[in-house]
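Please go through the sequence and fold tokens given here and tell me how the chain folds. Record follows.
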Amino acid sequence: MTSPTTADGGAAPAWQAILALTAMELRLALRRGETLVATAVLPVVVLVFFSSVSILPVDVARPVDFLLPGSISFAIVATSLVSHGITTAYDRFYGVLKRLGGSPLSRAELIAAKILAVLVVEAVQVSVLVGAASVLLGWSAPAGASVGLLVVAVLLGTVALAGAGLVLAGTLRAETMLAVANILLVASLILGGVVLPISELPAPLAAIAEALPAAALSDALQIALGATGDAAGSLTLLAGWGVASVGLAVATFRWE
């Protein structure tokens, strides 16, 4: 793909380039059907399995009330950090991004387009998870649920995690990125507040988890879906991670 141009042959406005690359990213994602299935199915499996067994050390009326926000967080980690990071690293390895690097497209525009494409995929994932929770587990949104907070948490979490994924994908070799991303996916199950509350972790692990975006995202989603608490601290942490990771990605991303 080359950067879009105007009728007179000049470079297209940045927003047109971003939308064109976003559309290309989504087309490529549809061709990687096995990746989409994995990132969509695995969080649903986590949600349904752990909701069906009595092993959660958490005091809630129904396990699904705790697990749905955690599963949404896990889906965002799986898509924006792991799957997106791996595919971007291999795009560098196979020279796909080298052609873009020779076009007027900037690194900032590339990163913006990739994050937008991830957000589209995640909108579908969140819908699937909420649908599975409702149909299979009888979940319904409590009175204290906030759609606005849910949207803000997903946006900030995606920017933070996708930015981190792009920092890794833009600097590591593809094989190394594959290994690191899968380690991070497993770590998010333990440290991300997905199936185990952060308060149940040993103090040193809890301290690490509380500084990471996955746990902050889980906490914000818990509150968005009806848990009591103030999400301001978690949203601030996510915003900080987002600014830092995206800024670092723009500064350091290598096309090849």
